[in-house]
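Morning. Coffee machine broken again, so started the prediction first thing and wrote up yesterday's gels while waiting. Chain of 268 residues, entered below exactly as on the submission form.
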Amino acid sequence: VHIGAFLLPTEPSHNTSKQAWEERASQKGSSPEGVLFRGFPPVLNHYIHEWHVWAVVSHLLPRLPSNAKVLDMGCGYGRIHRQIIEARPDLHITGMDFSMQYCALHHQEFPAAQTVCADAGFLPFKDKSFDAIIGVTVLMYLNRHGRAQIIREAILPKLKPSGLGLFIDPGLEFMRLAQLLKPSTKTTPTEGVGFALEEYKGLGDATGTIMLGMGSIPIFTVLLPLLMASSSLPAVSRFLLQRIQKLDFHLQSLHKYALQRWILVKHF
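Came back before lunch.
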């Protein structure tokens, strides 16, 4: 059903997770905290945001043809969308989220783009519709026991031949380690579950799909306790993060216990 620029979901989504996201959208609006780490100091969420943008702009965009069609899956209010069109204004981006409030915010920010309200597990698009799909912390919310099949059969087929998928999700190994140190971190605030390293690599090992690259933020992850402790001192945090960023970009292949990882896959 189309209402203006919106396509309303025709399949049920995960009710608990959906309600949590609607609450976050209502409380935070177009704020990075609403779509990034709840409880993180703004300076650390800003670092995470910049890393997300760097992964997309550096590893995906240079591979896309002119006027490519891109699905920003889990677009939120459009924080990645905005950075993409600044780097590649020729691209045609469709924003998709299962939060009605975030869809409204996205449409308000990008009225000329198509905004689709739907669940990642039931994408309302024809196969071979996009040159690229971006999913920043989206796959983690799929049903853990069936997500490999959903990705293989419901998400990747929406790519055109030789289309690219750039995904970013938490590392399960880090989440398990965090549970040992702080048992209350058993799940994320919206019940997402990270990927073990080998499971994430498997996204690029499936039939008809190859992995083109993978990376993480290893130094940020290791120094996270120090960064949290120093966040009340903005000058100190900025000093540390400037140096950590250079190391993270050079050492991104050290992703066994990473807070988050990115993976770039090609679907034939």
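The two ends are 30 Å apart (CA to CA). Going to sketch it on the whiteboard this afternoon.
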